[in-house]
Write a structure and sequence with these properties.
Helix content is 15%, strand content 36%. A hairpin with a 2-residue loop joins strand 5 and strand 6. The chain is globular, with a radius of gyration of 19 Å. The N and C termini lie far apart (46 Å). It binds flavin-adenine dinucleotide (FAD). Flavin-adenine dinucleotide (FAD) binds next to strand 7, strand 9, helix 1 and strand 16.
Length: 265
């Protein structure tokens, strides 16, 4: 591709952070452990999400605490919480889409965890407090091809990216899920090849299956931009594989730990 380096510039756009209280409007089960939650409410009037890399913070009751927690608000020093009430936990989720004044989040219903637990119990009318996104990172469609590697937690971002890419986009998507029943169907440009990797009982933090699949693929010629997201150690070693043996460029690699096998709380 004869694009200049400038056209490959990754643009960052900041957004004013706002706390929004939303109401669950609809719930849709995508696969046995994936739930689409569609939220609405007047606080969404100025919601903006420009990139599939965006994330919002959602606030949940901490384990062992009642459902009532200190509401976050934004002060000069960032987020503060209502006094006299338990401080909530914050978790990151991808705005899957925002249209017709509705915001869609998709939750992977893994075992344990305040976020997954909230989604498991969510009903039409349930409330969810969110903040953000605080910014958008926009990767241009100026690369020869694109690579996405992730697990269930990456599906909302990757599916959104596939839907928003131009139909001519070329590339490869490697996604690891537990078994056949957890493969959602989705739209993708014809040139984006999807490689499903089934865990079938191995640990979600074990990168050996996905790395074997990546090694087996003869990568297309040309420059590529890669996203790698999932469990922290899995992301780290998979990124190293790309950098050391698959011609990845550090500045064209977005590697993000979406969760950790040992979570902080
Ligand atoms: C930028 C960004 C965007 C994200 N977008 C999404 C999204 O759209 N949808 C989504 O479902 N997740 C998304 N995640 C991941 C999500 O924030 C984490 O999975 C988070 O830890 C879930 O919080 P929790 O309270 O449910 O579990 P935690 O309290 O964090 O963890 C409880 C237990 O569950 C384990 N655990 C946590 N997450 C997972 C997982 N994904 N798979 C298996 N075990 C897990 C932990 O190791 C721990 O043992 C995103 C993360 C980031 C950084």
């Amino acid at each position: 591709m004869s694009e200049s380096n400038t056209s490959r510039e990754i643009k960052s756009v900041g957004h004013p952070v706002k706390v929004r209280e939303l109401t669950v409007k609809r719930l849709e089960k995508i696969t046995p452990r994936f739930l689409r939650v569609i939220l609405s409410g007047p606080d969404l009037f100025d919601f903006v999400s420009l990139s599939p890399d965006d994330h919002i913070k959602a606030f949940f009751a901490a384990p062992g605490q009642g459902p009532d927690f200190g509401r976050p608000s934004l002060g000069p020093n960032g987020l503060t919480f209502e006094e006299g009430k338990p401080t909530p936990v914050m978790r990151d989720y991808t705005p899957r889409w925002f249209r017709d004044k509705e915001l869609c989040l998709e939750f992977f219903l893994h075992e344990g965890g305040s976020g997954a637990e909230w989604a498991r119990n969510a009903q039409v009318g349930s409330k969810l407090v969110i903040a953000g996104p605080r910014g958008s990172r926009i990767v241009p469609e100026a690369f020869d091809w694109y690579l996405m590697i992730g697990d269930e937690s990456s599906l909302p971002s990757f599916q959104r990216r596939l839907e928003e890419m131009s139909p001519e986009t070329q590339g490869h998507l490697f996604i690891e899920v537990e078994n056949e029943s957890e493969k959602p169907s989705f739209k993708a440009p014809a040139g984006m090849k999807i490689h499903w990797v089934l865990r079938n009982g191995s640990k979600a933090s074990d990168p050996s299956k996905i790395q074997a699949a990546i090694r087996d693929l003869a990568f297309p010629e040309g420059d590529y931009f890669a996203w790698v997201s999932g469990e922290g150690s899995w992301v780290k070693s998979t990124s190293e594989l790309l950098l050391e043996t698959k011609g990845a460029h550090k500045e064209w690699l977005k590697a993000t730990a979406y969760w950790n096998a040992q979570s902080p709380n």
